[in-house]
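Minutes, project check-in
Item: structure for the 213-residue chain
Input as provided by the requester:
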Amino acid sequence: MFTGLIQGLGRVAGKQHTPRRTALLIETALAKELQLGDSVAVNGVCLTAARLDQKGFEADLMPETWQGTNLSRVRIGDLVNLEPALRSGERFGGHLVSGHVDGLGRVSRIRREGNALVVQITVPPEIQRWIIPKGSVAVNGVSLTVQHLVADGFVISLVPHTVKATTFQMVKVGDWVNLETDQLLKLKAAGEGRQSEQPGITKAFLAENGFIS
């Protein structure tokens, strides 16, 4: 589990994509804190550190992860957002992030508003339904608050610290970004859906089972 608070940047040092194997090699100072098998969110995608050295780690990607995230688009030398998995007892900030990306969005507009960087992101309808004003969303693994909605997406606003500490320092119109919508919102909707499918105790149920005539 993650919080969406980026702990550091990594640099893509290697990339392999063949019919038999897909993997990324990431150089990062955070490698010294990792153990073999640890989970690391890379641009918001939960990956497993399969190989480690002092310079970085290597992670394998499943075909679905490769096809459904922007990790297939990264190039050698690109920077990526990194967050090791939350450890028991650590202070919890940001919001609950699973590292299971819902889909991709695309940056459609960037502007400055005072000291803030305001970014508009276009999303498909199946993701838009889970995004609400003032709700949480992870964009490339960064925990952010939805400023407001637009017809085909949403707008976020970033403070200078977040921009400097993440790949938003290099964001440009046309970039594809990984999106994970609010887990609590989806869990709430799933629970309500199950309840609506259950008829509950009705008069017909009581009559059918002999409790009333």
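Outcome recorded: The first strand starts at residue 8 and ends at 17.
No further action items on this chain.
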